[in-house]
Amino acid sequence: MKKWHVILASLASLALVGTLAGCGNSKASSSKSNSTYKYGSITIPAKNGTICGAPNYIAYEKGFFKKNGLKAKLVAKPTDISDLEAGFASGKYDALNGDFQYLPAIQNGAQIQAAGGIHQGCISVLVPKNSKIKSVKDLKGKTIATPGQGSTAQYVASIALQHAGINPQTGVTWKTYDYDLLTKAAEKGQVDAIGTVDPYAYQAEKQDGFRVIVNNNNSSNSQKMADMGMKKSGSCCYLYLSNKLTKDNKSKANAIVKSYAEAAQWINKHPQQTAKILLNKKYVAKTKFVNEQNVTNLIKQYHFGLKKASGKADVTYYAKQLKQAGFLKKDTNVKKLVEQAYYTGK
């Protein structure tokens, strides 16, 4: 019996040592995890199938978030801007790759700030190949379809309209169609022109023969495009951060900015590898047209790179344009709005 008591006691001791060792490993693992992710977790509403959302995916896939102490989670991006606003207000979301369509939302209380321009234009206004419309001036009295009221496509078209002397509120009729139905609506004669984002705009032009009337990517610094309101080398899309971070946790906010800056720089240097990642990881749905070559071409056109100072100047420009077009309040103080809407990192 004594022999069995000794054996059982020995086993119990080994079990205890193993348990303590396991606890120690658990603490060590937890400590290592905390060390790896210095700034904790962030949630980004990123997944919506667009190519211009590449910085979200590359920052995640190439480890830039992790490198800068952030444990990132990419989730589906709500189509309704009010759902995005609610997500940021509640602390559910931390960052967003979006465009200047959020300026009216910020004026109305959305809890986000832009932190830098992240790439140039991805939006076009197009007409079917046999259309008699040759210029923006020809759009007077016509019907334009976009993916939604208050969408950036509508804003880009409106800026061009007002530069052509057409009131965007009364001089045209606006209709809304889903992205994949816009070209069909124009081809059937239900609308005269469409405003949409890539890859839909690129496909309409290259595959369906649509003609581009306006493109908001003025990376060539064309005066003709500038005369239509398309700012020279102007940023179309921006990095947005939650006010909860920019006001209360600047270190974490700056870590996010750094991650996106590094991702955008990587994209600009590796457009083809970026295209492969977007398609192979199914962030962008692959089709016969939306293939590696075409996605690479688009990425090259966007000139990715986080621009802080010039990004603020671009936001100021578009705020003035949106005020003139009637999408911001008539008494908007643009300077004050931009100070509210832009995070400088200080």
From TrEMBL:
Keywords: Signal. Residues 51-270 form the Solute-binding protein family 3/N-terminal domain. Gene3D superfamilies: Periplasmic binding protein-like II (3.40.190.10). SUPFAM superfamilies: Periplasmic binding protein-like II. It holds the Pfam family NMT1. Residues 1-21 form the signal peptide. Belongs to the bacterial solute-binding protein SsuA/TauA family. This is ABC transporter. It comes from Secundilactobacillus paracollinoides.
